[in-house]
Amino acid sequence: MKFSLYIAKRYLFSKSSNNAINIITIIAAIGVVVGAFSLFIVLSGFAGLKDFSLQFTNVFDSDLKVYPHKGKTIAFSPTQKEQLQRIAGVEAVSEIIEERVFIHYKGKNHIAYIKGVDSLYGNVTVLDSIMFYGEWFVPGEHEVVVGLSTIAKLSMGVRDYSAPIEIFVPRPGTGQINVMDPSKAFNQKSVIASGVYQVNEDLDAKYLFSDFEFAKDLLSLDDNVVSSLEIKLTPTASEEFVRSEIEKIFPEEIILKNRIQQNDALYKMLNTENIAVYLIFTLVLIIALFNVIGSIIIMILDKRKNIKTLHNMGATLKEIRRIFFLQGTLMTVLGGILGIILGIIAVVLQLNYSIIYITRTLPYPVKLEAFNAIIVFLTIGVLGVIASWIASSRVRKKLVI
């Protein structure tokens, strides 16, 4: 093994008498470096984009959310609330009422969801991180916080008392609508926008935040019922333990979702895209490794006299094959390490100096992860071993006879 490795290093780092072979070897090595560099950059860039796409979940979605298994509401008594707050690992619990509503403002219409939240909602969600302009609503003052997309669509102003926002929601149990007087089929209230929130384009057009009691009155809901419960956990909480304790409190069947499960479609899409990007660039890397195979085969042909000499000195066919196998493996492994190092340097430069921008103010997001470096190294290592084995198998018995 030491003999084969020594000869392999000599062949790899020493110049050949044939200049064309030297050029082909350099091109093959550069291909490996560029392939590893590209794969690492793409994985780091996608990891940054993934975090950028999911950053709203950290500020908008709660650690755990309780949904009704059937219907739109859950019975939630003060006793259950006390039991929920006493669970080890639960930091805050917020009661939510949510329903689709029709919004009318100065002749323009929009369909959204009113989200009535209680005074503890600020303990579950960091409100300062989503507020874009204005102030959070004052409970009992018929104020709402509207998304930036809704503001733009309706050309709405903040604290415009001359033109209040009209909210309509169907009354429960009204039956068939009276065509002569359809207003009787709807509950209607007027509110003022006290502030504007911004999370992302979809959510900014979806929700209208209001006081919990206002939403309950608008929807004509009974006391001690909620649409959902949003729960914030302590940093050291055990999610499995909290889940089991919550399920004991509710006699009816409920649905419990963590932050990932609340956005499962988005997570699945991003993970699928990540795998697709990895496979595409792995294919590019495989194409680059064909140069390594070609380089080793040409080296075998160039070293035919040396191969015969080694064989006459006692080297077996297996040992001679191992020489070229180790040469190819060294080329891919060292090239992969160099490519990863260059990729790390590029990512660090982007993180510190924002060299590439998506817009004038938004630098391209990247993330430096050891996992990506390991993935690239293992990928190029495995592919390099396969390529080297294919090339070294070209050493046949007729070359040493």
What does this structure look like?
With 401 residues, the protein is an alpha+beta fold. It has two domains: 2-57 and 266-400, no CATH class; 62-262, no CATH class. It is 53% helix and 19% strand. It has 14 helices and twelve strands. The protein has a six-stranded mixed β-barrel with strand order 3-4-9-6-8-7. Strands 2-10 form a two-stranded antiparallel sheet. The radius of gyration is 32 Å and the shape is elongated. It starts with a helix and ends with a helix.
Question: Tags for this entry?
Answer:
2 domains; single chain; 12 strands; two-stranded antiparallel ribbon; six-stranded mixed barrel; 401 residues; alpha+beta
Give Rg in angstroms.
32 Å
**Helix percentage range:** 40-55%
User: Which whole number gives the mean pLDDT?
Assistant: 89
| Total individual domains | 2
Helix and strand element order:
HHEEHEEHEEHEEHEHEEHEHHHHHH
Largest β-sheet summary: 6 strands, mixed, barrel
Count of separate DSSP helical elements = 14
Distance between the termini: 23 Å
Strand order of the largest sheet: 3-4-9-6-8-7
Unreliable spans: none
Strand-residue proportion: 15-25%
**Helix-strand makeup class:** alpha+beta
